[in-house]
Design a protein that fits this description.
85% of the residues lie in helices and 0% in strands. It has 88 residues and is mostly helical. It has one domain: Orthogonal Bundle (Helix Hairpins). One of its GO terms (cellular component) is mitochondrial inner membrane. GO terms for molecular function: metal ion binding.
């Protein structure tokens, strides 16, 4: 019986992570669509719209990656400072 609560916690964490991913995906999709899709007179996606959407997504991914990198650097620096303060 001891394995069940852990599995439930793990499943809940996985579901929350997937939920956050979907919210983020929907947010960037909506933002890129709003910025890039302007001509609704044709069923075809225009080359300019396709290019804009691709650039929008690439920029979002690069920004997200950079923010994650900076956050990790900040966490490491905070951890180092905490260790130094404990030593002194």
């Amino acid at each position: 019986m001891s394995g069940t609560p852990q599995m439930d916690d793990q499943t809940a964490a996985t579901m929350n992570q997937f939920k956050e991913f979907l919210l983020s995906y929907n947010k960037v999709s909506e933002a890129c669509f709003t910025d890039c899709a302007h001509d609704f007179t044709s069923r075809k996606v225009l080359e300019s719209e396709s290019s804009c959407a691709l650039n929008c997504m690439e920029k979002y991914l690069k920004v997200t990656q950079r923010i994650s990198q900076r956050f990790q650097e900040f966490q490491m620096q905070s951890s180092d400072n905490s260790i130094i303060q404990k030593i002194q």
